[in-house]
Amino acid sequence: MGSRDGSFHGEIIDFLPDATFVIDIKGHVIAWNRAMEELTGVSKETILGKGDYEYSLPFYGEKKPMLANLIFMPEAEIEKRYDTIERIGDTLVVDIFIPTFRPGGVYFWAKASPLYDSQGTIIGAIETIRDITDRKRAEQEMERNRQRMAEIINFLPDATFVIDIEGKVIAWNRAMEELTGVSDKAMLGKGDFEYALPFYNERKPMLANLIFMPEAEIEKRYDTIERIGDTLVVDIFIPNFRPGGVYFWAKASPLYDPHGNISGAIETIRDISDRKRAEQEITRSRQSLEEIISFLPDATFVINRDGVVITWNRAMEELTGVSAKSIVGKGDYEYALPFYGEKKPMLANLILMPEAEVESRYTHVKREGDTLVVDTFIPKLGVSGKYFWAKASPLYDPHGNITGSIETVRDITERREMEGRLARSKAELQIAAEIQQSFLPEIIPQITGFDIAARSVMAKEVGGDFFDVIPFEIIPLEQGTLGILIADVSGKGVPAALFMALSRIVVRVNALWHRDPARAIFDANNIIAQDSKAGMFVTLFYGTLSEKNRTLTYVNAGHNPPVIFRNKDGSLEELLPTGIVLGAVEHREYFSRTIDIGPDDVIVMYTDGITESINAGVEMFGEERLYSIIRQNARLPAREILAKILASVQQFTGEMPQFDDITLMVIKGIR
Q1: Which residue, of 40, 61, 206, 319, has the fewest CB within 10 Å?
Q2: ∠ CA 584-585-590, rounded to 5°
Q3: What is residue 624's DSSP assignment?
Q4: pLDDT, tens only, 143-182
Q5: How far apart are CA 374 and CA 361, in angstroms?
Q6: Where on the phi/psi map is residue 514: left (φ > 0), alpha (ψ -120 to 50), or beta?
């Protein structure tokens, strides 16, 4: 029976998860389990029966008593060897560090208990050893983190203190010492709201204490408190803290233990007196600003975020005949009545509306940053109406939020009348422009298989660019043939316009007379060169477009090479010059060239007003941008391709003035 019990007990010890060994009363090893073999690398076969502390060699590298041996020693001997040993009944427990066990050393937890025989006599001892290195190092890391956190709190620029769940101070940083004049030594460990004394001269809960209180209690104590998650934030004025009182911003958050239970609270306090007094100064400044607005020479009013009038200056009273007393505080667009005779949004109201809403209401409003500017005519003001310039800007609070808007209105009727007189003085020039415009085809003739669009945009009232589409019905050419022409006269203004009129007539007459474009331009050049006394000349691209053959036969007289987009492979081809400019030298030869135009091929003819347009950075639009737009929009009809090009030039130049005439013709092959 005893043998079976011994075998059974041996199996239990062998399968214990902790490294365990047993010695008899003489200190000989009688059990050495598998976990001990794995821990020490010593098999039980080599250690069983060994004594003389040989079992300590795997741990210490020398023979010395282990905890199990202390079981047989007197109390005084135990205390001499381990000053940190813990005794639980007749069991000894200790944490120990063995620096030579593995590189870097190992922390062990060891527990040893005596073994008794049936008469209660000690017959041996059992010791269990557990590697607690990971736990110890985690505890050490936690302690280091705790120390670092304490150092961080201590060096925080804002005054900060920490209390535990019982309301006792466990941290009181240097900034708090400086703010209150109370040292951390005098405050650490104190509870019963003693930490409130430096602030209120009485014991009362501070923001950190409210963390532990129910919501109703918090609201009862602070009606202006803000809750952000589990954090409380408040601005408070303490009149007895320093002469004149102090404004504080305070923030308190709970602290949690590893199980998610609140273990304390941390509170940060910041003196915001300077900021608060600055805000008060802003309020006073706003009052002063209202006085300044009142004396502005331009009629000015201010509305708040709700569209209610808060300022209506003297100039506005004089302009509208409405006193400030009768309009301040009014909303619902009532302030528009003196201007329009009806309640409607004014420019100041548009500031408070989204951009899309502004654009849908006023297409002529100009935006300068966040300011809106407009010239408008109000027919119901004065005898025959008045012109006004109006400007509106948003007003912001210290946090950058829009709080309202201000609008200034100026009567510009006299200026507009002067502009009208100037406009009338230009009437003759405008008539000349209309005459010149009449030279351009109002309707572009179309022939089967081609889609044609063209447009000229003059830099001045009159200019030197022109285009023409010449139907050939009046001469015996093949049906379905058009003459197409784009040209640019050197120079600008009236001289260029006159030379343009001459050149157009000469080219058109010769185009109708000669079937070969080269012959037509040869004769036209001779005539123009004879009449060009001022050294002016014309760059020109002329060709005949055939419906039957789907071809273009052309002459390029020193003009910007038109470009043809080939739908089949997406390539671009320039139609290079085949002769010199018109009007420079007589009797110069010109050569015709013929190209096929397939379905969805696109030809773009243009003057240098497009490619030489510049933006604010003095960068030219250039051919590459033009070619890119052609590629991207080649699938569109001719009119839309033309519009895309002109829009891109306009977008590129922005506010820059147009320095040169722009003429553009687009021909697209259609199925």
Answers
A1: 61
A2: 100
A3: H
A4: 776 677 777 787 789 999 999 999 899 999 999 899 999 9
A5: 12
A6: beta
Q: How far is CA 187 from the centre of its chain?
A: 47
User: Strand runs (DSSP E) across 475-626, as ranges?
Assistant: 481-489, 538-546, 551-557, 563-565, 572-574, 593-596, 602-606
8 Å CB contact between 177 and 279:
no
Residue 573 corresponds to which amino acid?
Answer: E
Partners of 116 in beta bridges = 122
Which is nearest to 211 in space by CA: 230, 229, 228? 230
Going by C-alpha positions, the residue among 581, 390, 355, 421 that lies closest to residue 488 is 581
> What band does 249 get if pLDDT is binned at 50, 70 and 90?
very high
Question: Which DSSP symbol is given to 335?
Answer: G
Coarse DSSP helix, strand, coil percentages of the chain, rounded to the nearest 5 percent: 35, 30, 35
The mean per-residue pLDDT over the stretch 340-364 comes to 77
CA neighbor of 566 nearest in space, from 668, 484, 481, 485: 668
b/e map 343-354, b = 16+ CB within 10 Å: eebbbbbbbbee
CA distance 437 to 522: 26
Instruction: Round to whole Å and give the CA distance between 205 and 192.
Output: 9
Structure tokens at 539: 């760059």
If we measure between CA atoms, which residue out of 447, 383, 483 comes closest to residue 638?
Answer: 447
Partner residues linked to 234 by β-bridges = 250
CB 540 within 8 A of CB 557: yes
Give me the amino acid identity at 658. Answer: Q
- 340: tokens are 């329009």
Length of the chain: 671
Give the span between the Cα atoms of 153 and 166, in whole angstroms.
20
Domains of the chain: 2-131 (3.30.450.20), 146-271 (3.30.450.20), 284-417 (3.30.450.20), 436-669 (3.60.40.10)
Rounded to a whole number of angstroms, the distance between the first and last alpha carbons of the chain is 111
- Measuring CA to CA, which residue among 309, 363, 364 is closest to residue 337? 309
CB 43 within 8 Å of CB 37: yes
Distance CA 213, CA 525 (A): 100
Task: Quote the tokens at residue 543.
Answer: 């060709």
DSSP secondary structure code for residue 401 in this structure: -
H or E element at residue 254: strand 246-256
Residues in contact with 303: Cβ distance below 8 Å, sequence separation at least 6, in sequence order: 309, 310, 331, 335, 348, 349, 404, 405, 407
Pick the closest to residue 265 from 369, 339, 120, 168 (CA basis): 168
- Which element (helix H / strand E) includes 509? helix 493-513
Check: CB of residue 405 under 8 Å from CB of residue 370: no
- Let me know: does 193 contact 209? Beta carbons within 8 Å: yes
Side-chain-facing half-sphere of 132: CA atoms under 13 Å? 16
Helix or strand (DSSP H, E) at 435: helix 427-439
**What is the C-alpha to C-alpha distance for residues 40 and 280, in angstroms, rounded to an integer?**
76
- What tens digit of pLDDT does each residue of 371-416 get? 888 888 888 777 778 888 888 888 888 888 888 889 898 888 888 7
Is residue 127 within 8 A of residue 110, CB to CB? The reply is yes
